[in-house]
Amino acid sequence: MHLELLDPCRDPQPSGWEAFRQDEGLSAIWAYDVIAASSQGSWARPLLGVFHDGSRLAGVVGAVYLGLRWPKSARVPRPRREPLLLDVRLPGHSDGPTWHFAGDVTPERRRDLFREFERAARRHLGRGTAGVLYRMVTEPELPQVARRGGVVRDSPGSMYLPVRWSSVEGWLGSLSKNRRKSLRRSVKHVAEIPGLTVREGTARGDLDPAELAELNRRHTERLAARLDPRAPLPAAYFRELLRRDDVRVISYHEGERLLAFAIVYEHPATPVSGAWAALRPEEGGRQDLYFDVYPRIVRRAVETGAERVLFGRGRGEIKQSMGMEHVPLKFVVVPGWAMG
């Protein structure tokens, strides 16, 4: 097995990447151009570990590395010139691990490949690498990255909705009376807002990627956590998504003003609910848009025969009240001396 370290913002797509993505049933969030665009101009620099087994691509580990910076600083980290943290996650991903291996790569082999990736990353970033942080680790995958000297803690879990119904009404009927009534009330209220336009579709050339990026920045900035710094998703990322026919965008406009939007990565079995951003009511936004978008996503999943929809992390109690199931996740901190 041969390891190749790549910066997707600089290096061309490796041989076999798209075939690997298609064969493994990965959504557009794993498209190389999407990953590259997600880090354009960012202070969190991307680093991909790509494993080749002969002529085929057998696995990918996606990460970013972070340097010393003041809050809201855009300074780019400097490998070999300052302490750096290797953060194993990718911008825009919130449903689970940012690595994927072919099915015939055993868990024992994956553990060895993670160590190989860590050694290569440390050589690339410098001996001052402070450590590696694995986020969104599922419990079955924990033995592959946990070790002596590492610290394991609970991480906010991910949520998914099994699609067991033949209609949205069937889904609503499975919920508690209070949640069912509140969702119907929200949908009715949104439908009655004068001048509100809701559009859904792929290849949304009618939308402005810079406007989506700014609304997303303002929305995620409110949710930022000190121990979970997230670089803003750039306009280039949304530009890349808006041109694709496998990425669905639900947008809410009042006149010409964008109030909210949702990104959904289409997939025949497992669509992924991505970025959601909205203006607050005091900024001119509208209440109930957040709850209006869920029936739209569920309706599309039912119509296309999906098996489940991934809804990411955050707002777990609300999502559970809508019939979603919880996937426990861990994060693992490995100090520099224990890497590799």
UniProtKB/TrEMBL annotation:
Please name the source species.
Nonomuraea muscovyensis
Protein name per the record: WW domain-containing protein
Where in the numbering of this chain does the WW domain appear?
11-48
Q: Which Pfam family name is an example for this entry?
A: Acetyltransf_6
- What stretches pass through the bilayer? none
